Each structure stands twice: as structure tokens, then as C-alpha cells.
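User: I'm writing a short methods note and want a consistent example. For Abscisic acid-deficient protein Aba4 family protein, I'll paste the sequence; you return only the C-alpha cells, no commentary, since I'll be parsing the reply automatically.
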Amino acid sequence: MPIWLIELVGARDLDAAFLLITLMTAPCWIAMIVFPQARYVRRLAQPWIVVPLYTVVLVLLMWKSYQAALLPEVVSTASYEAARSFAKHPIAFLVLFCNLQIINLFMGVMIYQKAMRSGFRAPVELTLCCFLGALALIPFSLRLMLRRQAVL
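Assistant:
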């Protein structure tokens, strides 16, 4: 199915899916940033709980796309242009974006866990991680070094 046809017919569905993927991790981020000391947050903000939970969304997205025959063609040659055209496909973009959200949440949960074990809150670092991902590790690492708690 041509990409333009997917975008023409499914523009509303694609927008809704993008919004869902963008907001799906918001409850975890809000809980870790605003209520870090809450008992239920400390119990649920574990990588082995939140990552599989959101991975179900990714699997569901891929399964629905597979059933509807919306997945892009497999890249036959390993080149920058082939990867770029693959990532331009709307469904591939949603899958890659969902992966990014899950990876950022995993990193945020690990920052949260380390901060709680070290006895401090990390709202700035968690907010940065929510929006910028791995760049949040720079201020978090600096904070750990200044506190002399850089040992994992």
C-alpha cells in the first residue's frame, strides 16, 4: 500500500495513535516527578513492571499493523537512504516512536530508583529524561558526582 494512501485514509487514526503513544507514559512520569515518596509509586516504578506493560502497546501496534498489511517493506539494502525511507513510513515511525518512549521511560525509572536509593529527589533530571531522553544522564551524573554517590 503506498504511503500517501495510508496518510490520506488513516490520517485521523495516525494522529490518534501518535497522541496515544505520546501520552501513554505520562502517568508514570507525573507520578515519579510529583509524588516520588508515595508508596505505590515506589512499588510500581520498577523496570520489570512498567517496561513490559508498555511493550504490550508496542506489540499490539505491530500486530494490528501486520493484520492490516500496513507495515512497510523490509529494507533490502543497508544504506542511509533505505533506513530513511523506512522511517518515513507512518507505521514504522509510530513503532520507532513507541520504542523511544519505552526506552526513555526505562531510563527514567532507573534514574528514579537510583535517586530514591541515594536519598534525594530528581524532578529536573526526570523531566529532562521525559523530553530529551539520554541527555538527562549528564545532569544526573554530575549530581551524583557532586554528592559523591557516583558508584552504581
